[in-house]
Amino acid sequence: MSTAVVLAAGLGTRMRSPLAKVLHPLLGRPMVGWIVAALREAGVDDIVVVVHHQEEAVMSALRDGGVRFVRQESPKGTGDALRCALAQLPARGPVLVTAGDTPLLQASDIRRLLDAHAASPGRLATVASFHAQDPAGYGRIDRGAGIVEHAECSPAQLAIQEVNSGLYAFEAEYLHAEVRNLAAHPPKGEYYVTDLAGRLDGGITGVASGFPASAFAGVNDKAQLADARAVLRRRVNRAWAEIGVDFADLDYASVDAAAVLLPGASVGFGAVIEGRCTIAGTVGPHCVVRNSSVGPGAVIHAGSVCDGANVASGALVGPMARLRPGAVLEEDTHVGNYVEIKNAVIRRGAKANHLSYIGDADIGEGVNVGAGTITCNYDGVHKHKTHIAKGAFIGSNTALVAPVSIGEGAIVGAGSTITQDVPADAIAIARGMQKNHEGRASQLRARQTR
Q1: Least C-beta-crowded within 10 Å: which of 67, 215, 238, 277?
Q2: 71-120 pLDDT, tens per residue?
Q3: Residues 316 and 187 in one domain
Q4: What are φ and ψ of residue 261, in 5° steps?
Q5: Is 301 a catalytic residue?
Q6: Which listed residue (150, 185, 354, 387) is catalytic?
Q7: Is the domain of 308 the same as that of 389?
Q8: How far apart are alpha carbons 414 and 445 in whole angstroms?
Q9: In a domain, 66, yes or no
Q10: Do 308 and 197 sit in the same domain of this protein?
Q11: What pTM was computed for the model?
Q12: Confidence of residue 395 (pLDDT cuts 50, 70, 90)
């Protein structure tokens, strides 16, 4: 069993945002959530998150992560945050300590540090290091002097490219004995974890070197947030591609962490898959699919939006269609260009191929909904439902004023406004009588041009 402490109490003022830094989203998951997920994948079964700024929001965001929380009353550095967590730590065994703003950290990096720490019996702490092309701002790993913060480096130390990653493995006994003895650093009176991990000269602590610099890319502003999001986007997409999902481009599609893609699925250029989705079919270019399911053989054509929809096997959607929450498309249905579906069931084999709005409705099997048809479902106060039974035919430019039912096999003439139920096998026509005034068009034009 191993324990980890995630330091997530900071404000993140450089983000220039009212949202706490660790809550900024990357692919539908808060920044700190990526750290927790990596720890879980690495086999860390006990995670303590230190909170302060927007603590309730941070705790809510990690509610499903099975973590414990401790409050840092007045943030006074990383050492003080670790002191606040002491009571939550075991008496013995390894304890990982990491920041909550390095979302590119992977489970493999965590396991590597734990293995390196375990490989040196008697070692009390191990720090992960990497080589930085530009080490400015990082604490340097000076094998003779320990971890030296950038501001305190000598000219020779400034040239050192091996730097502190901020990921540590400690023995719990060491933390319980030494954290309370940390000295405050002027001028802010802050306490630093590096004072515990930087005792390199006496063999108390050690360095696990050679970690990839990319794993520890911190996120301190919106530009770095976008950079991290791009890395995660390709990482997530590539993982799905390796199990059999076809991506038009690994860099130009976005798949949230909560989405599930199945082998044989296809994701088009510029597609965005957000929230809790299950995708087994095809999501075309520049589509947005959010909290929806797309069954095997279903196709969401270019530019369509599915939000809270369930699209069954063999269904065709779009291009440029919009499925809103509660839209259910059964097998082999067709919803075409510029059709909007909201809180409605489109049953097997039914079609609405052009320019229609279907809201609060139940559309039966094999029904054909003509272009320009709308269900008038809202009377200004309440929503009402439209029922169209199996095999009915709804002519183009029809308005169905709910609540209304169209019987099985019925036909509604184009241009009708239906305000009463239509019986099964009936033909309903509800439009004004057409009158042709022959020879009058030229007379009208003549008057208009006088």
Answers
A1: 238
A2: 999 889 999 999 999 999 999 999 999 999 999 999 999 999 999 999 98
A3: no
A4: -110, 140
A5: no
A6: 354
A7: yes
A8: 29
A9: yes
A10: no
A11: 0.91
A12: very high
